[in-house]
Structures are given as structure tokens and as C-alpha cells.
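Input.
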Amino acid sequence: MDSTELASALRTAISTLHKGFRKHMAAANVYSMTELQTISNIYRSPNMLPTELAALAHITPQSMSQILSKLEEQDLIKRVPSTSDKRKVFISITAAGKKLVEKTRLEGDAWLNEAIESTLTAKDKEQLLKTLPVLHKLIEVL
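Output.
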């Protein structure tokens, strides 16, 4: 298999697995993947600027502004004015936002754990574990 075929096969596998995650996360029925990723980014790195969040999501600042407005209306995030520069507004997560991220992660982990336990052999699990560092190398180029 050449690298073009490998890339196609990996894309298909990852896309299908991603759809499985979405299917088993209640929040996916309410929020887009960009919205969920934005909440997750804020959870990991509190007090981010909207432009930083837009860059992480690979969307325009205007699109991020719409997402942030929706998340703020639902009390998942809050805007905190900078004390040193009045032009800047940092985005932080609320308790409800943290709860949503944690619930979504637990749902995804539970589904994936069940899929691993019911489908993979011990040898398959070993192979998967050995593959993780390679996948992380691909993640680094994002």
C-alpha cells in the first residue's frame, strides 16, 4: 500500500470512528463539532482570546464570534475584559461549560471502551497501543 492509499484508508477509518463518537454523545445533537471543540479548547486553556480560538478552529474571527455568542447565551462560557488592555476580552469556561465537556468526554470514553472491549483481542489492543505514538506524530502537524 502506497502512502496515498494509506492516507485514504486512514481518513476513512478516522471519519467513521468520529461519526461513532458523535452518535454516542448527547451534546452532539445540540452543538456542532466546532462548538464542542471550542468549549474543549477553552476548558484546556482558560482565558483565551477569540482570535486564538478562531485560529485553533481554522475559522474566521466573525464565525468564532457567532459561536461564542451562542455559547455565552447558554452560560457555557463567559467573556472577561482584560485588566491591562481594555480592547481585549478573554474567554473562560463556566461551571456549566466544564460539566458539558466532562460529560461529553465520559460518554465518548465509555462508548470507545465498550467498543474496544467487545471487539478487539488482546493482540489488537497491543497493536493499537503501539500505534498511538504514530498517530500523535500526525496530530502534531495540525
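The beta strands are 77-81, 89-93.
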